[in-house]
Amino acid sequence: MYDVIVIGAGPAGCTAAKILAERGYSVLIVEKCVLPRYKSCSGMLIKKTIDLVGKYFGENIPVSVTCAPAENKGMIFTNDAGQEYRFEQRGLNVWRSAFDYWLAGLAERSGAVLIDRTAAVSCDMQEAFIEVKLHCKKKGNYTEKAKYVIDCEGVVGSVKRKLLQSAGEYITTYQTFNKGTIALDFHYFYAYLQPELSEYDAWFNVKDNMLVLGVSGKDASKISRYYDRFISYMEANHGLQVYECLKSEKWLMPHVSTGCPIEYGKERVLFAGEAAGFLNPMGEGISAGMESGYCAACAIAEHFDDVQNVYAQYQEKTQFLRNYMMRQWSFVGNLSGTFQHMKML
Ligand SMILES: Cc1cc2nc3c(=O)[nH]c(=O)nc-3n(C[C@H](O)[C@H](O)[C@H](O)COP(=O)(O)OP(=O)(O)OC[C@H]3O[C@@H](n4cnc5c(N)ncnc54)[C@H](O)[C@@H]3O)c2cc1C
Asked: Which ligand 1 atom is nearest residue 158's CA?
């Protein structure tokens, strides 16, 4: 019997596990993929994320998890009317597989037990504990018990959906990695909000000299049309020339709707990160994942024996994070008509 089982070894899960383990709680992290696992991501760590890594993990981010160019100088954002805004701020460009694996290693070093290739299937509430059904390719089905569960399983959240018996709303993302040339500064992340290019946002960034071009939308059937238009736009406006497409991938993101609703959990199962719906504009979710994982861990650590209070404490502790998220979305709503429904009154 563990004190806490954490589902998912992404930024939210690793942070939650690290905080609880270093405070002396017995923690199991289960990760369904083989670690280091792949995660579709632009891999931009904003300054806030870098500071959170220092605060929660007490370490500097190693060069080994970065990709070229390692330094990111900020974001250049084009709104739906074609107006450009520059946000200068130093950040880092990382491969998520390496970055998340490094975080998982730090959680493990603090005493958390980490098991990969093992998916949580469901959480069954019992009187004094939660029974977590697991599926491991090698071991088959088995169960583990814990007093609390922090569900950090990311966007689709199959365990969460079973618990709440509801389906989430998603944005489909599509990005390609290319050999080619373009007349843009590789140190910036570029986001485009023109409605003809994307239903959400389109983006360009560089990872290890590969030109990454992506689009996103609520209606997955429109993605290829948006992508073709985005390529033509980048060719016409920034001299894009693609010589070879090396890789393409589709993924999902939570659809953040007006008022930024968050699902905090159910009884002694707390949701954190994307599983809860934490996601900032332009898909910046690593900082919110880490902060919500931290809040979930603190709510449990500070009220371990006061089961009835933990859920409410978690809600209270993340209020600042939800407010931050709402302000960020409102800010983007003020800059671009695409997100005007997100403006706070
Ligand atoms: C195309 C794209 C670009 C992005 N770019 C950026 C960016 O540049 N910067 C940024 O800050 N954010 C970015 N994001 C968002 C960011 O990736 C997420 O918000 C962040 O990863 C959320 O962290 P998390 O820990 O909640 O979930 P995740 O990182 O998704 O981790 C969840 C983990 O849980 C595991 N898992 C899932 N189900 C189970 C299960 N049943 N049992 C066990 N394990 C399970 C998964 O395999 C995964 O390892 C981007 C997202 C996308 C799609």
From this structure: 41
